[in-house]
Design a protein that fits this description.
There is one protein chain. 36% of the residues lie in helices and 25% in strands. The protein has helices at 11-16, 32-47, 63-68, 95-101, 103-106; strands at residues 4-5, 22-27, 53-58, 76-81, 84-90. The longest helix has 16 residues, at 32-47. The relative contact order is 0.24.
Length: 107
């Protein structure tokens, strides 16, 4: 996992106040599909470092944020831009599908 982690303590600075779009991957250690999508998100981050930032948020360690952003199933990915959620992606997907969902940010 190369994506940086964010927490309840750092979320405001890492995500809400960030310059440019930030994809937050809401995940948990025990979640198999989360582990499947993690290397794909790492690849997307590595290929587009100047266009989107990928951060991971462990829902078990940060239940307050999971509740605030209504995370009912994981993996769930939300793209924040200027502090607002612009895009929500639910479930593990292959790389090409995630790139399609993120096209407006990484194209």
């Amino acid at each position: 996992m190369t994506a940086k982690a964010t927490t309840s303590a750092t979320f405001e600075q890492d995500v809400i106040q960030a310059d440019g779009p930030v994809l937050v991957d809401f995940w948990a250690e025990w979640c198999g599909p989360c582990r499947m999508v993690s290397p794909i998100l790492d690849q997307i981050q590595a290929e587009h470092p100047d266009k989107i930032t990928v951060l991971k948020l462990n829902v078990d360690e940060n239940p307050d944020l999971a509740m605030k952003y209504q995370i009912t199933s994981i993996p769930a990915m939300k793209v924040f831009n200027k502090g607002q959620v612009e895009t929500t992606i639910i479930g593990a997907k292959p790389k090409f599908a995630l790139e399609q969902d993120l096209a407006s940010y990484i194209a």
